[in-house]
Amino acid sequence: MSKLSTCLSTLALATMCSLGFFHSASANTTTAVSIARSGPTFLGDGGTYPFSEAVRVGNTLYMSGQIGFKDGKLVKGGIKAETKQVLDNIHSTLLKYGYRKSDIVKCMVMLTDMDDFDDFNKVYKAEMIKPYPVRSAFGVSELAAGASVEIECMAAK
Predict the structure, then answer these.
(1) What is the pLDDT along the chain (157 residues), one digit of tens a residue?
(2) How far apart are CA 19 and CA 23, in angstroms?
(3) Are strands 69-70 and 149-156 parallel, antiparallel or unpaired?
(4) Cα dihedral angle (7, 9, 13, 18), rounded to 10 degrees?
(5) How far apart are CA 34 and CA 19, in angstroms?
(6) What residues pair up with 111 in beta bridges, in sequence order?
């Protein structure tokens, strides 16, 4: 009987191990992760122009390029005046959608005359907050409405 008892014990143990293995192999081992995804929210409109003022995706705000318009007209006074107005317009857009200058993470600058780069930088440095966002600057042949500078930014919270 001890051989029979040993054989049955071995068989029972093998069966339990097999069932345990089967159960653990078929168990759902993935962990469900809840990721909140928000699609783009298009904000404002370009008025008569075919673009949105900004688009929010998650906590990131992508703003359309701004030129030195005030009251529907390009400000006078050259690159310094235009740059100041552009940055004022960007600041207004940020505030409108619940962001601040310190939330800006990237800017792309377009200048019609790269000789204006130093004057542009003087105004930019005075108006922006340290640490400065990453930035690109490009020389372009022309901009809308005869502007000398256009700036496009992204902000994140």
Answers:
(1) 555 444 445 444 444 444 444 444 444 545 555 556 678 998 987 677 788 899 999 999 999 999 999 999 999 999 999 999 999 999 999 999 999 999 999 999 999 999 999 999 999 999 998 999 999 999 999 999 999 999 999 999 9
(2) 6
(3) unpaired
(4) 50
(5) 32
(6) 139, 149
CA distances from 62 to 26, 56, 66, 90, 112 (A): 45, 6, 12, 11, 23
Measured distance CA(141)–CA(101) in Å, rounded: 29
**CA-CA distance, 115 to 108, in Å (whole number)?**
17
Q: Which residue has the tokens 């928000």?
A: 38
Q: Which amino acid is at 93?
A: T
Rounded alpha-carbon distances, angstroms, from residue 119 to 68, 78, 129: 15, 10, 18
